[in-house]
Amino acid sequence: MSLLTLIRHGQSTYNLENRFTGSLDVELTPLGEEEARLAAIKLKGFTYSTAYTSMLKRAQETLRIILFEIGKTDLTVIKTHALDERMYGSLQGLNKAETIIKYGEAQVDLWRRSYATRPPDGESLEDTFNRTIPYYKSEIEPALKAGKNILIVAHGNSLRALMMYLEAIDQEAIALVNIPTGIPRNYVFDKNLKIESVNYL
């Protein structure tokens, strides 16, 4: 039996300002830091072999706060671009409400939620899936199969990609999935990596 915990980083400054963030490297807000501390409280009964995060500081700082709060600052942490948020191209930094006024709600919703449609000069969720899942399968699945517990702190779209893979969510259904910031999602696997249970804490 093994455990995989997925956490989306705490609220960032661009989340607060309702901006497209993507690969821009922005800070956590005070609320985002508090969300990380609250996540840590929920994780105090669990132990992990390794933690994985992206190359972006909002995810790294969320993980740092969590490990500090649970007294596991010596845990091995692996940082990888495979878990980065998807790149929103020319939308990055733009206010979402203003972008809707310019392009229309239907177009912006398509860029944000669809699987295969790329925003201008950016990545689609499909592109994110195609860099996140091969890494997960080669680097993380073997550890889970060996009975180790893994913690991943990453981003809305890299985690949506993982949820698609883990839960066999199709391209239409994933458009309706929104991952909250700072809330741990636990997957318990049997020895064959079949999911025994999944839930938000």
Which helices and strands, and how do they pair?
Blueprint: E1 2-8, H1 13-16, H2 30-43, E2 50-53, H3 57-69, E3 76-79, H4 96-103, H5 105-113, H6 125-145, E4 150-154, H7 156-167, H8 171-174, E5 185-189, E6 195-200
Parallel strand pairs: 1-4, 2-3, 2-4
Antiparallel strand pairs: 1-5, 5-6
Indicate the low-confidence ranges by residue numbers: none
Task: Give me the CATH architecture, please.
Answer: 3-Layer(aba) Sandwich
Per CATH, the superfamily is Phosphoglycerate mutase-like
Number of helices: 8
| Class computed from helices, strands and strand pairing | alpha/beta
Q: What is the CATH top level name?
A: Alpha Beta
The total strand number stands at: 6
Beta-strand content estimate: 15-25%
In the residues, how many domains can be counted? 1
Q: Name the shape in a single word.
A: globular
What features would you describe in this structure?
By secondary structure, the protein is an alpha/beta fold. It has one domain: Phosphoglycerate mutase-like (Rossmann fold). The chain has eight helices and six strands; from the N terminus they run E-H-H-E-H-E-H-H-H-E-H-H-E-E. Strands 3-2-4-1-5-6 form a six-stranded mixed beta sheet. The longest helix has 21 residues, at 125-145. The relative contact order is 0.23.
